[in-house]
Specification:
It is a single chain. By secondary structure, this protein is of the alpha/beta class. It has three domains: 22-218, P-loop containing nucleotide triphosphate hydrolases (Rossmann fold); 224-293, Helicase, Ruva Protein, domain 3, CATH 1.10.8; 298-371, Orthogonal Bundle (Arc Repressor Mutant, subunit A). The chain is built from 16 helices and nine strands. The strands form three sheets. The chain has a five-stranded parallel sheet, with helices on both faces. Helix 8 (224-236) crosses helix 9 (244-253), helix 13 packs across helix 15 (336-348) and helix 13 packs across helix 16. The two termini are 43 Å apart. The protein binds adenosine-5'-diphosphate (ADP) and magnesium ion. Adenosine-5'-diphosphate (ADP) is lined by residues 9-12, 19-20, 22, 43, 45-51, 194, 258-259, 262. GO terms for molecular function: ATP binding. It holds the Pfam family ATPase_2. Residues 19-261 form the ATPase domain.
């Protein structure tokens, strides 16, 4: 991988050098898959789930133990979309850039209604996904399963943004997946998703077809001391310096969310040689300003009561007694019953979450901005 100048990388496929720790998580993931367990990794956005899975897959590929396929389900709205994503991932891995196409792959794409065409200039193959094949999803999954089962090495598939399943046209996708997984026990699965509530609904509720089909792994923030060493080393090896106290400030301000810490460090690295607390203040303001167009949409999405409550939670973070008259009066929130309804709705939308009895605005940057409104 080409060395980027800024060591605080913001994409989620990063080489070992720029990846901070997660040693215990990597060990535990390996032990799960080596013991034939499927996994479901969940946690709030930006903690590092996708990045961890990419890193894990790089390690598995290097060890030569598994063949890995990674699909991001965010653009998918149906089972057929997932099948197409899998077909593309298979083509990218086993077909693109290869001189010939194996007969098993030809057979697979025939069943999927896809075709491989050769570019007349480069003579390289390219995949053409056919038109919609409604009603053929189960045959397609079977063909995919047969193809993957026959690979020499064991195949592990990551399905990222799996909470997307909630928006699918078909409501039986979870049960189709369950049957597919049962039929092809050779294939390992890593499901990953951002909305803990939705992900646990899919994998931890007795009534869900995917109940008990994967080990549930919550991803927690990186530890401050791990992150401190990582950040200081990268500053130091580039002739720069950042004091521990500033890293602690960044960590608290970011609530330990990896993406935001990386973003702040990326800015500080670019702008400073000797980082001071004032530099962090300046950069955090700059970052918030970039998000203002996004934040401006929030008041339009919410009722007035919800918006006012959200603002009040950001100011109090963490808020311990949302129904106390002191809180209601201080922020002029009106009747306790109105606030109670608004709070339930904000939690349902996962804009607010509760931890150890305290309430937080889920989006850290939104929260930091609203605090000063
Ligand atoms: N261990 C890590 N070391 C360094 N940067 C990381 C690490 N984990 C995540 N990141 C950074 O944080 C960002 C968010 O991580 P991501 O994996 O996309 O989170 P999630 O999938 O949980 O939403 C990534 O773009 C990456 O730059
Ligand atoms: Mg992700």
């Amino acid at each position: 991988m080409k060395s980027p100048e800024n060591p605080f990388v913001l994409t989620n496929h990063i080489g070992k050098k720029y990846f901070c720790n997660r040693e215990n998580e990597l060990k535990s993931l390996l032990s799960h898959v080596e013991n034939n367990r499927n996994l479901m990794i969940y946690g709030w956005r930006g903690l590092g789930k996708s990045t961890l899975v990419h890193r894990f897959f790089d390690k598995l590929e290097n060890k030569g133990q598994f063949e890995t396929l990674f699909i991001d389900m965010l653009p998918a709205n149906s089972l057929e979309d997932v099948i197409k994503l899998l077909a593309s991932a298979i083509f990218e891995k086993y077909g693109r850039g290869k001189p010939g196409i194996s007969s098993s792959m030809n057979k697979l794409f025939f069943v999927l209604g896809a075709s491989i065409r050769f570019d007349p200039y480069s003579d390289m193959p390219d995949l053409h996904l056919g038109p919609r094949q409604l009603g053929r999803e189960e045959q397609s999954l079977q063909a995919l399963g047969e193809f993957l089962k026959e690979r020499k090495k064991q195949v592990i598939i990551a399905m990222d943004e799996f909470q997307q399943l909630d928006f699918f046209e078909e409501k039986n996708t979870a049960s189709v997946f369950r049957n597919w997984m049962l039929k092809y026990p050779e294939i390992r699965f890593v499901f990953c998703g951002n909305h803990p509530g939705k992900m646990l609904g899919i994998f931890a509720e007795k009534s869900s077809p995917l109940y008990q089909s994967a080990q549930l792994i919550p991803l927690l923030p990186l530890q401050l001391d791990h992150y401190t060493g990582f950040i200081q080393d990268h500053f130091k090896s580039n002739g720069k310096y950042i004091p521990t106290e500033v890293i602690e400030m960044i960590f608290n301000w970011s609530r330990g969310q990896t993406y935001i810490i990386q973003l702040v460090c990326n800015y500080l690295f670019a702008q400073c040689t000797n980082v001071r607390a004032e530099d962090f203040m300046k950069v955090s303001k700059e970052i918030i300003e970039q998000y203002l167009p996004v934040f401006a949409t929030f008041p339009k999405m919410l009722t007035k009561a919800q918006w006012n409550l959200l603002k009040a939670i950001a100011k109090e973070e963490p808020l311990f007694n949302p129904m106390s008259s002191e809180f209601l009066i201080k922020h002029q929130l009106g009747a306790a019953s109105t606030v109670s309804t608004a709070l339930k709705s904000l939690q349902k939308q996962e804009l607010v979450f509760e931890e150890d009895g305290g309430f937080f605005v889920q989006e850290v940057l939104l929260s930091r901005w609203m605090k000063n409104l």
